[in-house]
């Protein structure tokens, strides 16, 4: 027996997650198919929107190769006597913002809406879904600035990334001891990590700008008995009554530089003992030191720059890393009423919230094989806009299948196939996002960092459907 939903197969990068395998199984002789179509998760408006996406994809998508991206059956509401009835329907269950917004504008619009919703509905659950972790991080920062309580479900939590980023910057300063910019960056982040008052932020920005202009950093870190007036003024700088002086940070840097010959994990522990005081942060530094110690055992050739890259992958949210904050220890939506969860579409699978915001539904994050669509991993300057990774994998597959005979594919064939698979997965990803919402759904899109993206083709179809539905209701 196999149970699955091909419409929610959104991990095509894992070979066994392709919907092809379940579809092939269902066509085998003596296999009996039973649809489990009833769902009590969403209200009728949201169910109808998801069903329309299935219908439009199957029958109206302009690219026939993508018409099998979603499959029947349609979602059916829960039966009348079901112990989990559908939430009540209402006329404002769905809102699609059709106006073009720059990414920073989209974030501001969503944050404003979320803040109002949470204040008015403290007993409801709320989620914001983003296509990638980096964009989700920006949403988290904007919510925090707006004093909205945030729960993260990303590769790592905001605090874990901040601690890791500070370690990264300090290691960079030690690895390049004569670079004033790296020194200034580490000092800047050290004072910002716990937050600053507005006046302190202005003072810090001025001081950091002065540090970046220091001609000979060694004169600042190892001053003469009679330093020149500029160095003296910098050494006397303070940032508010409760902050340490620049001189105390310089003392830590001198200590780290003298310990630079130690194994990297020991150097990290020394930094951590100077930079942090809470048990959670010290435990996190210890865990990071174990990561670097493991890397050093497996890569004897590594120098400090390579170890810094290991840390950078965590601080950039490119690597899963569980820290010691409360948000790292599992997630249950019902335990976070009145707060806002921020995560990616992929990580939302299997979860549900009263209100869901779907962001960045443009033709870059949700392409449909249209002429102006763009694709992740493909660079405009590569000849004929090829996906080099897909081309190489296609050649290797052909060699394996043909034993090296006639294995050369036409240039671009593998790229086109990769784009088809990706576009199909993105339609299913949008479907998953829609079906996470119980009572209300907000969908927005942005024009991308180059201001050249458009509303995703499936979203255009959903927006037209919604307008026609409103017109029909009068």
Structure description:
By secondary structure, the protein is of the alpha/beta class. The chain has 2 domains: 1-154 and 338-474, P-loop containing nucleotide triphosphate hydrolases (Rossmann fold, 3-Layer(aba) Sandwich); 158-324, PCRA, domain 4. Helix content is 47%, strand content 7%. The protein has helices at 19-26, 44-59, 103-120, 133-145, 158-175, 180-192, 198-212, 217-221, 229-235, 246-258, 264-275, 279-298, 304-315, 388-402, 413-434, 457-473, and strands spanning 38-39, 76-77, 94-96, 126-130, 150-153, 340-344, 353-358, 437-443. Strand 1, helix 2 (44-59) and strand 2 form a beta-alpha-beta unit. Helix 3 crosses helix 4 (133-145). The chain starts with 18 loop residues before the first helix and ends with a helix.
Rough shape? globular
CATH topology name of the largest domain, in short, is: Rossmann fold
How many helices does DSSP assign?
Answer: 16
Q: Which series of helices and strands comes N to C?
A: HEHEEHEHEHHHHHHHHHEEHHEH
């Amino acid at each position: 027996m196999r149970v699955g939903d091909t419409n929610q197969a959104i991990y095509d990068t894992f070979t066994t997650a392709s919907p092809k395998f379940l579809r092939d199984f269902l066509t085998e002789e003596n296999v009996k198919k039973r649809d489990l179509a009833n769902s009590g998760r969403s209200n009728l408006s949201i169910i109808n929107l998801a069903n329309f996406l299935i219908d439009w994809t199957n029958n109206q998508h302009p690219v026939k190769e993508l018409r099998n991206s979603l499959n029947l059956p349609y979602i059916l509401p829960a039966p009348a006597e079901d112990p989990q009835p559908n939430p009540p329907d209402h006329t404002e269950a769905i809102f699609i913002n059709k106006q073009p917004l720059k990414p920073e504008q989209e974030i501001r619009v969503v944050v404003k809406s979320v803040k109002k919703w949470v204040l008015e509905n403290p007993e409801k659950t709320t989620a914001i879904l983003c296509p990638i972790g980096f964009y989700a991080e920006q949403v988290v920062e904007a919510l925090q600035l707006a004093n909205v309580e945030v729960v993260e479900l990303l590769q790592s939590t905001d605090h874990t990334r901040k601690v890791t980023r500070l370690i990264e910057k300090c290691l960079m300063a030690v690895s390049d001891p004569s670079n004033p910019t790296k020194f200034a960056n580490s000092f800047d982040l050290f004072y910002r990590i716990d937050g600053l008052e507005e006046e302190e932020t202005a003072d810090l920005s001025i001081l950091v700008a002065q540090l970046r202009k220091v001609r000979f950093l060694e004169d600042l870190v190892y001053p003469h008995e009679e330093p020149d007036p500029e160095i003296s003024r910098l050494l006397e700088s303070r940032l508010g009554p409760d902050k340490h002086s620049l001189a105390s940070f310089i003392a830590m840097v001198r200590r780290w530089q003298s310990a630079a010959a130690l194994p990297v994990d020991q150097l990290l522990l020394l930094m951590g003992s100077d930079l942090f005081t809470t048990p959670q942060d010290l435990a996190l530094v210890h865990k990071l030191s174990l990561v670097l110690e493991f890397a050093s055992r497996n890569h004897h050739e590594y120098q400090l720059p390579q170890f810094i890259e290991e840390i950078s992958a965590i601080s950039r949210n490119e690597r899963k890393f569980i820290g010691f904050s409360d948000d790292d220890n599992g997630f249950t939506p019902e335990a976070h009423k009145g707060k806002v969860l921020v995560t990616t579409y992929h990580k939302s699978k299997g979860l549900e919230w009263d209100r869901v915001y779907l962001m960045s539904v443009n033709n870059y994050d949700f392409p449909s094989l249209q002429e102006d669509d763009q694709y992740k991993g493909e660079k405009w300057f590569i000849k004929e806009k090829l996906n080099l990774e897909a081309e190489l994998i296609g050649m290797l597959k052909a060699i394996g299948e043909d034993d090296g005979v006639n294995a050369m594919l036409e240039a671009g064939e593998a790229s086109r196939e990769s784009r088809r698979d990706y576009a199909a997965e993105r339609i299913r990803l949008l479907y998953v996002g829609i079906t996470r919402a119980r009572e209300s759904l907000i969908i927005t899109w942005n024009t991308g960092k180059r201001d050249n993206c458009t509303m995703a083709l499936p979203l255009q179809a959903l927006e037209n459907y919604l307008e026609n539905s409103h017109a029909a209701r009068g």
